[in-house]
UniProtKB/TrEMBL annotation:
Domain Thioredoxin: 40-206
Gene3D superfamilies: Glutaredoxin
Keyword Mitochondrion: no
Domain of life: Bacteria
Family statement: Belongs to the thioredoxin family. DsbA subfamily.
Keyword Oxidoreductase: yes
Sample GO molecular function, one term: oxidoreductase activity
Organism: Georgenia muralis
Keywords for this protein: Disulfide bond, Isomerase, Oxidoreductase, Redox-active center, Signal
Protein name as catalogued: Protein-disulfide isomerase
One Pfam family, short name: Thioredoxin_4
């Protein structure tokens, strides 16, 4: 896999959290209005024959962060799939483990069918142990085994305790998965792997992702390990839109 470089996030990109708060405040200001002003002014009544204005729904806020890079070992599914799913993940996050067990298999079926590309961004929401686990998964990706390593770290829908994420444990896991342990050990401490993980951490911070799991499905934010049905519906809607 080619060494990752830090990705510049466009200056116009507004963090998802800020967008959501702004939309909520807008709705409150429009719907709630000023109670005092409303009490002082009589309600205006439109003539019965007055034209009714069409209600225009606000356009769904989307964030297109999919890279669609050939040879990206932290991705699954065709590079030109009509829909992308970007997964912001932390290997110390229990809800990430639940999502990996309950929902990820369904998403991978869409990818196998050619309808979805999944791109993982392992970030640091829980400290140094999270970073080291992310570096280990990235190092496994250097041998085209990211998905297998990722699944092993979340085996049974459970996150591994910190004492099972030491360097010795991470290297041992690589051996259990049949990887070249000597190469894995070298990659685990390589500046290229560290830079690749840091680029993902920086990307998440730039768009306001500080907790996990978080997702961009077809560019639409989904926060938390929502039920599988939520992702199925979002994927179907994004696929229909992409296919016109």
């Amino acid at each position: 896999m080619p060494a990752a470089s830090a990705r510049r996030v466009p200056a116009w990109l507004v963090p998802a959290a800020i967008v959501l708060v702004a939309l909520v405040l807008l709705v409150v200001s429009v719907v709630g209005g000023d109670d005092e002003g409303a009490a002082q002014q009589p309600a205006a009544t439109a003539p019965s024959d007055a034209p009714v204005a069409d209600v225009v729904e606000p356009e769904q806020q989307t964030l297109e962060m999919a890279r669609r890079e050939e040879g990206d070992a932290l991705a699954y599914g065709p590079v030109d799939a009509p829909v992308t799913l970007v997964v912001y993940n932390d290997f110390q996050c229990p809800f990430c483990a639940v999502w990996a067990k309950d929902t990820e298999p369904t998403m991978m079926e869409y990818a196998d069918a050619g309808d979805l590309r999944i791109e993982w961004r392992d970030i640091n929401a829980f400290g140094p142990v999270s970073v080291r686990a992310a570096q280990a998964a990235y190092a496994a990706g250097e041998q085209d085994a990211y998905v297998e390593y990722h699944h092993a770290l979340f085996e049974g829908g459970e996150k591994r305790p910190a004492d099972e994420l030491t360097d010795e444990a991470l290297i041992a896991l690589a051996g259990e998965l049949g990887l070249d342990v000597e190469r894995f050990t070298a990659d685990l401490d390589s500046p290229e792997v560290a830079a690749g993980v840091q680029a993902n951490v920086d990307e998440a911070a730039a768009i306001g992702v500080y907790s996990t799991p978080a997702f961009l499905l077809g560019g639409t934010p989904i926060l938390g390990a929502q039920p599988t049905e939520v992702f199925v519906q979002a994927h179907e809607e994004a696929l229909a839109k992409a296919q016109g």
